[in-house]
Specification:
alpha/beta; TIM Barrel; eight-stranded parallel β-sheet; two-stranded antiparallel ribbon; 10 helices; 10 strands; NADP_OxRdtase_dom; Aldo/keto reductase; NADP; NAD(P)_OxRdtase_dom_sf
Length: 274
């Protein structure tokens, strides 16, 4: 578990559901992930699968001895719903779709470069939800240093997490350092570079450790105190991504650190138009 800045604990590996749009497939993937041992499930309003995620959670809880309190469920407010009142409404909609009494962590999905005032109103709404005890933690996604500095300078509550694109080709060291200094946990989306794993050097590290390239990359995240958010709907991959009970030596870590080329697979948060 990682300890968030508000004292809440969060599982060190999350299960992502981006692009899991087939309802039955998504529901089954969530259930299998929970049966495998994942306790941190991540979705978002824009994914269009909160209902399927909720059904997968309900099915698992019904057939296990695990309680709801042992799970850490995360969703996000989408850009078109940003603003104070619209965010409060969006939270209620997500809660209903998930079929839950509360959400563990609620995130702003993207800052809005053309209307940051609306993003700050969204953060104010998240603070309201948190203070009312309706959500256990609040955080952000895709925020750069200047976004985080504004929140730190103008609001009462520090985000517990910043979920950003992060992988061996985009290591975001300066942003990670800033987050660490301000007790904001860094969470990585696309930690496996959206499946671009055909790299000879990483294959050698994987062979040395008798693991897959995906497992090696996820372990690199963990040993750098980053929370990875792998996603898959394939049962064998879901299980493989959770089997991280090994340690990379310094040589392996240094090698993966050397692969950084500041290469984004997704958009730059300062340039988005959606």
């Amino acid at each position: 578990m990682y300890l968030l800045n508000n004292g809440l604990k969060i599982p060190k590996v999350g299960f992502g559901t981006w692009k899991a749009t087939d309802k039955e497939q998504c529901k089954n993937a969530v259930r299998i992930a929970l049966e495998t041992g994942y306790r941190h499930i991540d979705t978002a309003a824009i994914y269009g699968n909160e209902d399927a995620v909720g059904e997968g959670i309900a099915e698992f809880l019904k057939n296990s001895n695990v309680s709801r309190e042992d799970l850490f469920i995360v969703t996000k407010v989408w850009n078109t719903q940003q603003g104070y009142e619209t965010t409060l409404k969006a939270y209620d909609e997500s809660l209903k779709k998930l079929g839950l009494d509360y959400i563990d962590m609620y995130l702003i999905h993207w800052p809005q470069p053309k209307d940051l005032d609306r993003t700050w109103e969204t953060w104010r709404a998240l603070e309201t939800l948190y203070k009312a005890g309706r959500v256990k933690a609040i955080g952000v996604c895709n925020m750069k240093k200047h976004h985080l500095k504004y929140i730190l300078d103008n609001f009462e509550i520090v985000p517990v997490i910043n979920q950003i694109e992060l992988h061996p080709y985009l290591q975001q060291r300066d942003l990670r350092k800033f987050c660490e200094e301000n007790e904001i946990l860094v969470e990585a989306w696309s930690p496996l570079m959206q499946g671009a794993l055909d790299h000879e050097g990483l294959k050698k590290v994987a062979e040395k450790n008798k693991k897959t390239v995906a497992q090696v990359i996820l372990k690199w995240h963990l040993q750098n105190n980053i929370l990875p958010l792998p996603k898959s709907v394939t049962p064998s991959r879901i299980k493989e991504n959770f089997d991280l009970d090994f340690t990379l030596d310094k040589e392996d870590i240094d090698y993966i650190n050397s692969l950084n080329k500041d290469e984004r697979l997704g958009p730059d948060p300062d340039e988005i138009t959606f």
